[in-house]
Amino acid sequence: MQTIPIKYSRGKTAFISNEVDINFTLLDFWAWAFSDVLTNTARGILAEFIVAKALDIDVKKPREAWAKFDLEYKDCGIEVKSASYHQRWFQKRMSTISFNVPKRRAWNADTNQLEEKSQRQADFYVLSLLSEKDRTKINPLNINQWKFWIIETEFFNNRKRSQHSITYNSLIKEIGEPVCYHQIKKTIDDLIKK
User: Fold this and answer.
1) Which domain holds residue 159?
2) Phi and psi at residue 113, in whole multiples of 5°?
3) Is 177 part of any domain?
4) Among the four 2, 81, 96, 162, which has the fewest Cβ within 10 Å?
5) How many whole angstroms separate alpha carbon 116 and alpha carbon 75?
6) What are the Cα distances from residue 183, in Å, to 71, 180, 187?
7) pLDDT tens-digit map of 39-92
C-alpha cells in the first residue's frame, strides 16, 4: 500500500462523530499534548520549528517525523538537535550539555525499508542549546535564550574524538562560540556557498 500523505491542519479543525463536529479541536489536542515545550521530546520538535522559521522554510508543509533528516533547505538536509541546562523534573544540578550525533540507517516510508548502510543523512547539523541558566527564568519560547552551532556533517565524520556525541566544552574548543537565532540563515548560507 502507498504512503498516506501528511496534510497541513489548522488548530480550529474539529474532531467529528458521524460526520458532525464535536466540541473539541485539534488546537485543544495540541495544547494538551505539547504545552510542555521544556520536556525533551517537545523541546526537540520546538528547536526544529525555530530553525525552520529562521531559514524561512515553509512550515505549512508538515514535519515528517521519520524523514532522513529534520529539515530541507536549498537542497541540503539539516538535522536539528537540542539540549537544555534545565529539565522539568527536580534536579540537584544543571544538566551537562551534550549532543548525540550518531550515524544511523535511514528509513524509507515508500518502501518501509531501512537503508543498508549507517551514515549521517544530513549535510548540516544545527545544535540548539536552550541556554538560560536561571531556572526561574527558563522559557523555551524566548528566542533570546537559544544559542546555535551550525556544523557541517564532514566535521563529525572526520572527528578524531567521539563521532557519536559532542559536549559543550568540545563545541567551544573545536567549533567556537554559538550564533543567535538571527544569525542562523546567514551562517548556513555562507557554508552552502563555500
Assistant:
1) 26-87+95-193
2) -125, 150
3) yes
4) 2
5) 23
6) 17, 5, 6
7) 999 999 999 999 999 999 999 999 998 899 999 999 999 999 999 999 999 999
